Amino acid sequence: MFRGFLLFALLFGLPAAAEPLLPWLVQSVCLDARGRTIPGMLPFEAGCIRQAPQRQDAPMPYRRHDWPAAPQARNLPTGYQASDAVLGSLLGVPAAIHTFDFGTGPGRRFGVLDDAMRGDGGHVIPLTRGAAFIAMTEDGGGGIQWFRSPDCRDGGRGWQGWLLAAPDLSESWTTRVVELNIAPSPQACPTRFNASLTRFRRTRLDLPWRDAGTGQTGAAPIDVIVSEHFGGAAIATAHHLERFVLARDLGMVRWERWENPAVARQADLSQAAETLRRQQRCPLLTVSEPPESGWQMRDCRFWTNFVRATPAQPLAALDWPRQALR
What we know:
Elements: H1 2-11, H2 22-25, E1 28-31, E2 50-53, E3 62-65, E4 81-83, E5 85-90, E6 93-102, E7 121-126, E8 132-134, E9 136-139, E10 143-148, E11 162-165, E12 174-183, E13 194-211, E14 217-230, E15 240-247, E16 251-259, H3 261-264, H4 269-279, E17 296-302, E18 305-308
Parallel strand pairs: 13-18
Antiparallel strand pairs: 1-2, 3-4, 3-18, 4-6, 5-6, 6-7, 7-9, 8-11, 9-10, 10-12, 12-13, 13-14, 14-15, 15-16, 16-17
């Protein structure tokens, strides 16, 4: 599989330094003996012998949806949001595209880039360095936002703000403090930057998954990268934590939002955490632990609820970001 990703990187002009993290950033497709995509097959299933990264413009053998809340599973088997982890581009630079595609609620449809403020969007990770950074994001609340780093002051791209991980991975945490701020365009360079404690590690876990068509559930042993982005320079003084789980051959499969009650002081935090627990839309993982005593998980999405394509019904990734940004 490693050789397959390396060959793909060479054929499509990806920089060699970006290749080591590609299998955790982009979901894989399974290929038959003739190199054709096998509709409906998942990368961790026994019949998946040969693999290749999923391109944004190619038919998809499956889409990753989030888990529905247990009481709504029968009526909403495909959950609330789909997320694609595909190979695309940002301003001409090869990139991993992680889309967020809402499909429930007024004016929301799976597979269609809905009107602005409906929530559709995602984030983009340019494949230009050994380390992986989120350069741009879009959602219904903030619209398009660019995460900028201090190197923009010296004429650099300024894409090294929101760090996800670097290739020097081990089972122990690698910890760095990075500086970043939000800007309205890729040319804007903020006058000041905020410190963020970021840490990441690599581990194996049993990843729960669900078949959206049948409701069947299971677990697969998966190699993952856990990345934690704190809203502050230290855990004790950080307002919140965003935790990402990047699964090999599946891309980003999980997002968790944790709050520090000592700093956030949100009156409804305990209630929100209990509601999330009762909904059962985010089965706990072995890595779903508070960074320190007292922290509570307020929100979560878990994109391992799989919708499978058939030869007669191919699937497609969300057409995002818009063409002007590719």
